[in-house]
Write a structure and sequence with these properties.
The protein is mainly α. The chain is built from 15 helices and 2 strands. Helix 1 packs across helix 4, helix 3 packs antiparallel against helix 4 and helix 7 packs antiparallel against helix 9. It is globular and about 55 Å long.
């Protein structure tokens, strides 16, 4: 199956899970659930859930057992986008070609929808699930907690917001995005392994290292697309990083050096997973896609 077909298949799979995870039935205030669903189901590449599924298959797992982890990672990612778009943070009006949550609803509803998506992610991982051991579920909850909180994504976002307009060294920029972007991408791969029962071992270690590589590549590519992409294709305003004077890889290294870095990272990813042969083919195809995408 081609990568394009797999992306479509797994995107539809996780979207079906997301639709069934949130319902307006028996709600005393349906705008909350409507805002959650609006933010979850308004498109997106679904890269993180796909990484969960690919890592699960890489470790010989079951897609059914990967569904809760794929659902959780996308819920958490969506919560972060809802909050990032708020006036107190990036103050964006457009996300994936549509009005952001606080524009489509209101600011208070957006904050609460983000809060609910965050907690629902942990509900997805921790609810009783036939085929999981308690050790697996605890490991998954810990993995997502560590990646999302004050040692991961939230810390990276706080650092980013506090350094707008300030010069950063390359090491500072890498550390910031390892937390803000890379931690959740690595977590998606680890969740896929954990859902397959791979609680330790060489494949889990390889996926962690692979996540760190493609997490950096993902951010470098995003920074380039902010310059070279267009608003219609990106689904959000292009040039927004430049307008806000945010620290980016192109601003620090230059466009040509960033493109060279992307190719180096891609080669590093291939070298890392080469020993696993065909088992790693899907993961490497996705790495190629992350580096070569145009949105």
């Amino acid at each position: 199956m081609s990568l394009e077909a797999q992306l479509k298949l797994f995107s539809e799979r996780v979207e079906n899970c997301l639709k069934h995870s949130i319902s307006t039935d028996n709600s005393i205030h349906t705008p909350l659930q409507e805002a959650m669903l609006y933010s979850l189901l308004n498109g997106g590449k679904r890269i993180r859930p796909v990484l969960v599924y690919f890592a699960n298959q890489f470790c010989g797992g079951s897609l059914r057992l990967a569904d809760p982890a794929a659902t959780a990672i996308e819920m958490l990612h969506s919560y972060s986008l809802v909050h990032d778009d708020l006036p107190a943070m990036d103050n964006d009006d457009l996300r994936r070609g549509k009005p952001t949550c606080h524009i489509a609803f209101d600011e208070a509803t957006a904050i609460l929808a983000g809060d609910a998506l965050l907690t629902s992610a942990f509900e997805s991982l921790s609810k009783p699930q036939q085929g999981y051991t308690a050790e697996q579920q605890l490991a998954m909850v810990y993995c997502l907690s560590k990646a999302a909180g004050e040692r991961g994504m939230v810390l990276g976002q706080a650092f980013d917001l506090s350094h707008v307009g300030q010069p950063l060294t390359l090491d500072q920029l890498k550390q910031m995005h390892a937390l803000k972007t890379g931690a959740l991408i690595t977590c998606a791969l680890e969740l896929g392994a954990l859902s397959a029962g791979e609680l330790q071992g060489e494949r889990l270690k390889a996926l962690t290292a692979f996540g760190e590589i493609i997490g950096l590549a993902f951010q470098v590519k995003d920074d380039l697309l902010d310059i070279e992409g267009d608003t219609v294709t990106l689904g959000k305003p292009s040039g927004s990083d430049i307008e806000r004077n945010k620290p980016t890889y192109p601003a620090l290294l230059g466009i040509d050096a960033c493109k060279s870095l992307l190719e180096d990272l891609l080669q590093e990813a291939h070298t890392l997973l080469q020993p696993y042969g065909e088992d790693a083919a899907d993961l490497l195809s996705l790495a190629n896609y992350i580096v070569r995408r145009n949105y």
